[in-house]
TrEMBL record:
Protein name from the UniProt record: histidine kinase
GO molecular function: kinase activity
InterPro entries found in the cross-reference section: HATPase_C_sf, HATPase_dom, Sensor_HK_TwoCompSys, Sig_transdc_His_kin_sub3_dim/P
Histidine kinase/HSP90-like ATPase domain location: 327-414
Pfam family, one: HATPase_c
Enzyme kind, highest EC tier: transferase
EC assignment: 2.7.13.3
Length: 417
């Protein structure tokens, strides 16, 4: 019994009833337009004095509602109302205007059903409760019976008058039952008529993929730029501390490298975090580092950390590289140097060469006798290098080779297209 009353008068049922009344309110302008048509056709000046004419006005107004449902904002507004009042899971409904003819047709069907069911239930909600309350009060108030016009003959019998409260309560329960059934039907049909179409699912998947790509790009840029800078600054400061008393010239060079590294990294960090800024914020003007702009500076800052780097550019002019390839190659070289600073310890040989239509980056350093322990949360450097190469259509190979650790990256020079 408790479940029965909850189904009729529970919170979900009440909210769905409100949704139906909202549909009735939306139907009223169309009913008024329908009355303008029905009145002249029937020769009646006031169609609202007849239930038949009111239903006729309602029948004329619904097709007009179906036409206006073709406006793009109809589906977003309907979906918002269903999510708020009908208890339908949010992911079962589509977002945004319909994208296809079939989706527009389903939106028209939903809007017409909502206004049709809502108009009927709103009329019942306005008419039945006062009548039911009057029936329930008839046995208690003789004046009410005397003032009531044209009471049915049967109500003059005592037994019939005693049953009027039961009839009034039954009418209210029946009204609640009709509202609950209509609300449940609309809630069941909502995912079918307002649910995402294949085009909506594809658009949502594309949005998620774009968001994921931005997040991955942000994580990769932060790891490569800030991670390299912190590693370099840490090693530069450590080297300067060890020789502070007997090699002041090296200390000055290390401090200058730390200053330059942090200054550049702040600019790069501002550029990377610009991805997170809102549309109204001014964009960062910090240029993305490239091989042509900062390869020598990158090598010099790395050497200041104590790593001996031998770099050769074979038949290659960094300034002639496509900007996209030059930028990604800079990040790859930066990550290679950062890994060598953390793990190799002493020296690294870097070679940049043009191999046909490809840029070939090769880095080799001796394996340490006791490999350092991997820090918690580390281990993303080689994965980031591989991701950058793959996005440009290139390849990456990394691993031990004859007592050395060797990284080979091949980037197509036509990747900027």
């Amino acid at each position: 019994m408790r479940g029965f009353w909850r189904a009729l008068f529970g919170r979900r049922a009440r909210r769905r009833w409100i949704h139906l009344i909202l549909g009735g309110a939306l139907a009223m302008p169309y009913v008024l337009v329908g009355s303008v048509v029905i009145g002249p056709l029937t020769g009646v000046s006031d169609v609202f004095t007849s239930l038949t004419l009111q239903l006729g006005s309602f029948a004329v107004g619904l097709p007009l509602a179906a036409v206006t449902a073709l406006f793009p904002l109809t589906r977003p507004i309907s979906v918002a109302a269903v999510r708020a009042l009908c208890g339908v899971p949010a992911d079962a409904l589509a977002d945004g205007p319909p994208r296809s003819r079939a989706a527009r047709g389903r939106t028209v069907a939903w809007f017409t059903l909502h206004l049709g069911f809502g108009g009927v239930l709103s009329g019942m909600t306005l008419a039945l409760p006062p009548f039911a309350v009057t029936l329930m009060a008839l046995p208690l108030f003789a004046g009410l019976r005397d003032s009531a016009l044209a009471l049915p003959e049967v109500l003059h019998h005592t037994w019939a008058l005693a049953l009027t409260p039961v009839a009034g309560a039954a009418m209210l329960v029946a009204l609640a039952g009709c509202a609950a059934v209509a609300g449940a039907l609309l809630a069941r049909w909502a995912p079918v008529l307002l649910g995402p179409t294949p085009a909506d699912r594809l658009a949502a998947a594309e949005r998620r993929a774009a968001d994921l790509a931005v997040r991955n790009r942000l994580a990769r840029e932060l790891h490569d730029s800030v991670g390299h800078a912190l590693s370099a600054v840490t090693l530069q400061a450590s080297a300067a501390r060890r020789v502070l008393d007997h090699d002041p010239e090296f200390v000055r060079e290390a401090l200058a490298a730390i200053e330059d590294t942090t200054r550049r990294t702040v600019g790069e960090l501002d550029a990377v975090l610009g991805v997170l800024r809102e549309a109204g914020d001014p964009a960062s003007t910090a240029p993305a580092p490239t091989l042509a702009a900062d390869l020598d500076g990158l090598l010099s800052r790395t050497r200041a950390g104590g790593l001996r780097v031998q770099a050769d550019a074979v038949a290659l002019d960094p300034a002639a590289l496509p900007p996209l390839v030059s930028r990604e190659a800079y990040r790859i070289v930066q990550e290679v140097l950062s890994n060598a600073l953390r793990h190799a310890g002493t020296s690294l040989t870097l070679r940049l060469a043009r191999d046909g239509d490809d840029l070939l980056i090769t880095a080799e350093n001796p394996l340490p006798p006791h490999p350092p322990r991997t820090r918690p949360g580390g281990g993303h450097g080689l994965r980031g290098i591989a991701d950058r190469a793959r996005l440009l259509g290139g390849t990456t190979e990394a691993g031990p080779e004859r007592g050395s650790w060797r990284v080979t990256v091949r980037l197509p020079l036509k990747a900027s297209a």
